[in-house]
Amino acid sequence: MRPLVNKKCTFLRRSADQTRKKMTGASFSDQFLPKSVDFGNRCGHTPELPDLSLRLPVNGGTVSDDKKRRGGIPGILLALLGRLDQYYWKPSIIPSLNLANGSRRQQRSERREGCLKILAAMVKFLDLTTLKVGIPQTSREFQGLTIPFLASHAGLSFSRASRAMKDLQTAGLVTVATRAEPDGEGGYRGVAAVKAIRKEVFAIFGLVRRLKYERERASKRQAKKQQDWKAEQNNQKGTLGDLARVKALIQGLLDPESKKHHSSPTGAAESIEIQKNRAKAARLRKLIEERPELTPDEVILLLKNEAE
Fold it and tell me: Is the pLDDT of residue 267 over 50?
């Protein structure tokens, strides 16, 4: 009897809908379903018009008069970003990602879109030297990026970005290494995991040969930055030492042994030495103000020559 009841209910619903349409000129679905969604699957995703762009665009640099690109991310990363959409239209080019959800059916278009957007966000912050995702520091340290940070650049929710990252890991396209650091209380606290894109991703999109060349160039650039940073640190150390010596001189310590040799029970000779040291300190300040181009060593040498 249940099938007959279902057929009767369906007939009654259709009759009510037809009656309402005759009376109001619109069907029930036209009245109560949102008008803004004319196509797609009513979640903002349209299979025929995917949104594969990042929420925060990539800085591609500018082209100067000599036809060379200045600034922005390396050209090979721009080329990779331009080819990622090939997987959306032809999932068979990455079988491991197409089957990452454990189903024999083709990966859903929404899921493909999420995977490509989070992968594009990772490419945006990719370090070519190590293929790690993050911001390299001059002190040979590496700042990893969290999933919420990547999701904000990709324009995805946290849950959707996490699911896409898991699919990319399962497919063997990216690696994630968890990290922890001491919390100062005898325990450890987690920090942003280091994520990396495997070179097979470049091979899939025909960029593996160019990758080798670009990584060599990136290594040279990184080495030069390290050298410049070390030189700057050494200069800062030398400057701090010079400033300390100048400060000591200004305090009247040009000749600390003078007090021992010229001191007397009455203190008259000691007062004379103090006055001399104060005069030297005043002259030192004046030299520093008048001759700012001189180094501290040159100022000290000039002051000693004047004393002689």
Answer: no
Q: Which of 205, 215, 150 is nearest to 176 (CA)?
A: 150
Helix (H, G, I), strand (E, B) or coil at 291: coil
Predicted confidence (pLDDT) at residue 171 exceeds the cutoff of 50: yes
DSSP summary character for residue 200: H
Strands 132-136 and 188-197: antiparallel
Residue 210 has pLDDT above 50, yes or no: yes
Rounded Cα–Cα distance for residues 234 and 237 (Å): 5
**Residue 46 structure tokens:** 């349209």
Amino acid identity of residue 65, one-letter, is D
pLDDT at position 2, please?
Answer: 47
HSE value, Cβ hemisphere, 13 Å, CA-based, for 51: 11
Q: Tokens 């009841």 map to which residue?
A: 5
Q: How far apart are CA 58 and CA 253, in angstroms?
A: 58
Residue 34 vs residue 290, higher pLDDT: 290
Exposed/middle/buried for 70, CB within 10 Å: 0-12, 13-18, 19+? exposed
